[in-house]
Amino acid sequence: MKLIMLGSGTSTGVPRVGDDWGECDPNEPRNRRTRVSIIVENDAGQRILVDTSTDLRAQLLANGIAKVDAVFWTHDHADHCHGIDDLRVMRYDRSNPLPGFATKKTCERLRRRFDYVFEGQFGYPTIVELKETSQTQLVAGFSFDDVVMPHGPARSTGFRFEADGKSLVYATDFSEITPEMVKTFKGCDLLVVDCLRERPHPTHAHLDMALDLARRCKARKTVLTHMDKSMDYRRLCEKVPKGVIVGYDGLEVRL
User: Which one, 87, 147, 226, 242, has the greatest CB density within 10 A?
Assistant: First the structure.
């Protein structure tokens, strides 16, 4: 099983528009962060894409990803879904739409905003066949489980994917650790976790909360993601404990 981190930045990316790098060193390439999205790949080469970030086209090109076998969405916030149109080219050589999955509420919101993707329009075929995560637990060679996570006043979805005897958890955009999250993520081989900044934030996990989740679910390895312009890569690497990786665009982790 393999993680490919397509994007590791917060909703505005790093640098922000205006060449605003904040506390991040612009001479460190791993500080240049696009919006969050990942690929999970099994030993057979099947791939799941989690979230269609605003920067999806550039991310797929940079990582040599020409196709995926399924798409999952954590929630409907713009930085996690507004690159959805870049899935169109993956439909060209398929006889059927891409399988897509999200919670009931996220499905409803995605269908309202991107009806042409899920229904076809003006002679163009449906791009994604969208289903609720509760309808299946096996997709493209992976089994999965999901859990609702508090995201300030909103909700996000955490996913646990399993294949080839390994488990990978993707938990981004949460502001509180719940017992259900700890239970779903327990004993995972890799935890990819929300870590916006070092100071507490009302809608996202900060560094101490991210590390607390890793400890509580006994993750064997942890990767930090969704970082803002205050999180300089090299400084953060010196601060995190053993077994914790500071994520960056293009990072690959094999399990």
Answer: 226
Contact between 131 and 97 under an 8 Å Cβ cutoff? The reply is no
At 102 the three-state DSSP class reads: strand
What is the C-alpha to C-alpha distance for residues 129 and 223, in angstroms, rounded to an integer? 30
CA atoms within 13 A on the CB side of 83: 24
b/e burial code for range 85-104 (CB count within 10 A of at least 16 → b):
ebbeebbeeeeebbbbbbbe
Q: Which residues of 113-129 are buried (b: 16+ CB within 10 A; e: fewer)?
A: ebeebbeeeeeeebbbe
Residues of the chain with confidence (pLDDT) below 70: none
Ramachandran angles phi, psi of 189, nearest 5°: -75, -35
